[in-house]
Amino acid sequence: MKEIRVGIIGLGRMGRIHARNIAENVPSATLYAACHYNEEELERARKDLGVKETFKNYEDMISSPNIDAVVIVSPSSLHTKHIRLAMEKGLHVFCEKPIGLDVEDIKQTIEVINAHPNQAFQLGFMRRYDESYQYAKKMVDEGAIGELTLIRCYGIDPGSELESFVKFAADGKSGGLFADLSIHDIDLVRWISGMEVKHVWAIGKNAAYPVLDDLGELETGAAMMQLEDKTMALLVSGRNAAHGYHVETELIGTKGMLRVAQEPEKNLVTVFNEQGVTRPTFQTFPERFREAFLREMREFILCIKAGREPEVTAYDGLQSTIVAEACQKSIDTEQLINLN
Fold it and tell me: Which residues form a coiled coil (predicted)?
């Protein structure tokens, strides 16, 4: 089959990861077009990645007759609009999480996606493509730890980026801690358990930057959830890990327990020096999930070529956003939220 020609919108940190993977590491795909508001980034895409067509207007890019698929890494508030426009142009779509910030808007977008069954749609929940999480899920599915009783997730960004986030939050809403960060853990809970969330109670605190209170943002938040079968889930999400990028998941069952990345060790090196004995840790999400980002993009291209539906669907995006929205509502109302 022919090579899949891809256009990408968004060349920020996440966009550059996807762009380089498509250009250099995804068989049967070529990064043909790019859209970004900054001319310097477009010039870099042309020079470093061999991009043939560049645009500052998204609709101009998706109107190009030379692309087959689009990768959406635009601001979260624009995802649903960009998905619909691309689908209506006959393009295959990969969209970074979250699928959107408004539940009704997402439902309308899913109707558009469903109206184009011959076009692949995949959402960027990359942790499903991480080998460690796949191994843990396989053990759960095979009954290795018995019946699941509790899932605990930590997802904490490095504290070194907190100050820049405060500046970002002052310029515009991120979508909130739960929609912006916890959405990955919410998806893991649904994926590993095979269950939907029934009840949510969430709390939070701004300690390092109390100004976030006035901005309607959270520095650290936690949520307790009950799933359909009464399995419990505990989420801790934050932006202030002093040691680097910390993502950890614990699965407790009736016959045992699993821990994925109990310590965010970068490699197998132990350092002995004047600071004592230390182990290097991951500092950023591109480091920790480098292979997962690559594998999910390869899967997207394979789905297009094989004419099959990607594993991560728009419905997964909808359900995760519903739960994230419930967490934020719980924060705002200080009440337990029931999900129908």
Answer: none
